[in-house]
Please model this.
Amino acid sequence: MPHLRQLRMDQLLDELQTRIDSARGTRDRVHSLLDAVLSVGRQLDLAQVLREITEAAAHLVDARYAALGVIGPDGERLSQFLTIGLDDEQTARIGHPPEGHGILGELIRHPEPLRLTELGDHPSSYGFPPNHPPMHTFLGVPIRVRDEVFGNLYLTDKKGGADFDEDDEAVLTTLSVAAGVAVDNARLYEASQRQQRWTQAGAEITRSLLSGSTRAHVLELIADRAREILGADLADVSVRVPEREELVVELATGAGADERHGSTVPLDGTLPGHAYRTGEPATCVDLARDEPPYAAEGFGPAVAVPLGIESGETPASVKGVLLLARRSGAPALTREETSPLGGFAGQAALALELAERRRDAEQLALLEDRDRIARDLHDLAIQRLFATGMTLQGASRTIEEPAAAERVLRAVGDLDETIKIIRSTIFGLRAAEQEAGPGLRSRVVRAVEESAAVLGFPPRLSMEGLLDTDVPADVAQHVLAALGEALSNAARHAEADRVEVTLQAAAGRVVLTVTDDGVGIPEDGRRSGLENLAARARKLGGSLELGRPEGGGSTLVWTARTD
Model:
């Protein structure tokens, strides 16, 4: 009997100790949950909040792997996927992050807690990609923000080999409620900060417009500020190529800007083309893989915004397109992030409109000057030359020496030829006026003036020859393209304090020379732009020569035939 009493006493003590341990475990778990809730709630940076939630979830349920998937704007795919338990090397070997197929998609379609003993036994199991570690037990819980499913928590492989139980589900569900509040607070804070930055950027751009800054400077300012505020890696401004179904990238900033600048973008089958044709913003989750695609590898979420003076305009009045994109794998662009772009797009369109009006004013001044020159030549110069010729012709009759009389008559003939040349020049000036298009000379002046904004100083310019009359229109276009590329290279790579531009037209050729005092052209640098210049020159029977002056810097000589 004493032994039996002792046995019962030992059993009671063991049971009591078990209950005490369970109570302590429950107490410790509650404390851990409260610590996690407080830790998550203290953060205001959204990226840090998501990281804290994922780490806390893994710790609370003792999971080997944890992930948080953010549902994209389409409500069907994951736009962001954060993982715990996989190192960078493993993540790189797995490749593209999941988009929401299989079990991950099951929670997107049915946002309710889900516990599994074996992942592969579920009907929605999609399998694992190559190089993915094996996973078995699973626990998934949705995260809601204001009754909207923001994303899902995914936990796999409870340490020790046990299954996830009801307590794990309850703890994770509680954490998801706190996570929803924390995400909402972080998004509100982020939105307020972003709105303040949009306001500051809008004021900066308005000041730039009112101060008379060049079109290139204002567009670059708009693209840079939009890229910075949205955290984009790419920003392009494209305008329509006249009489062609293409857009040309007039301004490119961010990653790979040199390759995209000056490239053409078809209107059909591209995100910018879609925005241009419809006159409405267009977005995609993956720029390289989504439809319509865009020729930019390595970029994911993107938005293309038409540049119009007022919202709701017809596509015919769209001035161009502003494209912003993030790297692949980055968070999708939300409606809250992109909605202020409408005002920015209006300012960009205003910059384009002002530039057109300035060009019209410059063209009008040029045409008025041409008309004045034509009148002066006709009313003054020709009349005086004609009168001089008549006087010499009358005087020749009184000259007795035949040789002298012959020389006077030859002078009269030269005056007649001069009058014909002047009349031909007058005709050319008036024909140019009727065409209502700026000549090469004025377009070169404008291009050089606009380059001062990116160079930081105005280049020196000299021009010789009949550039407006002797250089055909198609050759003039190539000259301007070569000048733009040369000035762009000087601004991006030369680190120069002085740039000189010389343009000459004579003897059936046009010669463009651009010299700077910078660091020179590196032997191993990218030469895609220079190769394009050389190809243009060869196509027009000319050449491209690069040199290095004795005092340092570089010299570019581009030539083309004009006859």
About this structure: DSSP finds 15 helices and 16 strands in the chain. Confidence is low (pLDDT under 50) at residues 16-25, 309-316. The first strand starts at residue 63 and ends at 71. The radius of gyration is 36 Å.
